Amino acid sequence: MDVDEILTGLYSEQGRQNPYPWYAALHAHGPISAIPTRPEHSTVSAVAAGYDLVDQVLRDPQWCKGAPPGWQDQEILRTFMSSMMFTDPPDHTRMRAVFAKTFTPRRLGALEPVIVRVVDTMLDRIAEAGAGGAEVDFVADFAYPVPALVMAEFIGLPEADLPWYRQRVDWIDEFMDVAGKTPERLARANQAAAELRDYYRELIGHRRRQPGEDLISGLVEALDSGDVELTEEELISNLIVLFNASFVTTVYMFSNGLPLLLAHPDTVGALPGDDGLARGCVDEVLRMESPVHFLARAAPRDTVLGGVPVRQGENVLLIIAGANRDPARFPDPDRFDPRRSGPPSLAFGVGLHFCLGSAVSKLEGRLALPRLLARFPELTVTRPPSYSGSLFLRGIDKLFVSTGGKERA
Description:
With 409 residues, the protein is an alpha+beta fold. It is 54% helix and 9% strand. The strands form four sheets. It has a four-stranded mixed β-sheet, sandwiched between helices. A three-stranded antiparallel β-sheet has the order 3-11-8. A hairpin with a 2-residue loop joins strand 5 and strand 6. The protein is globular. The termini are far apart.
């Protein structure tokens, strides 16, 4: 199977539901492959799935993200391009330094009781909804509300605003998919970005008048002190992108991870009370079912990468989820092994753009999964999972489960 056939298969409905056979086929071609047939105006010249090569490019600050054409004319793209996730140094360095100061160990430590409280509330909801053997949508009743409520409290969003907020998150995520650049999706994403900007302007004004212990209050205090190089509009862009990234990836960490865990009853039985195993399970879920499947980086100059020529400005598609199953780095890569040794997964990126919210996401997984499986030791999946269909943010959107009628207090 040649590279064109692999990419065609990957973009098909079958590939969207299960991309891993196509990633394995890419590995058979080596760590990187040129794309022989490209659509007109495409700037993507190669696709890489080898762990070492993807890691190398992500760590090299000269391989930049670049700006999409016409970005100044679209609200959503202006929001992206004024956030640290989509910019390169020096702007990225300047903005990230401000946020890094607010992601303190003290603030992260204060989240632990918040996470436990939220998780236990959602477990009570599952117990009530699943009484008498009724099916429960694990995503609606756990995987979505846990990170949404935790991030809302961490950032400083009122809980009552979350249903309104989620719709705008969905519109932005739809646009970010490979097939998402339709006029209709662009219009919805532009609307979402504009409405979220207005929302955050009002919220920032409120925090100025009544500061709290949340992230927004800390950032507003730093901004108003004049000690940081950040405009209010950049602050808003980063808050929009930070909430989207941290929230959606954690939803999919839970929903993608539960079927993996339940397929290994020995692990499920040992998980409660074993913090080391819990950490390993979170890491292995993120390796095997990375919520973010690919990134792109543009070549800083004419170069040869892994034997493939790449011209200055051309993009290489970096298959994160494929690199995390590279057999050269992860023996038997399709086997779930929470005690696996080897390099860390690339699920949250690496280098300059390593996800700031990764510590929050992993903490949620480490605390929530053991409590879930201790409370419902007979939890089972009752229907085939329903995947998002996105090749960029891939995850289970609906996952029906049964508690099995057995619950531990």
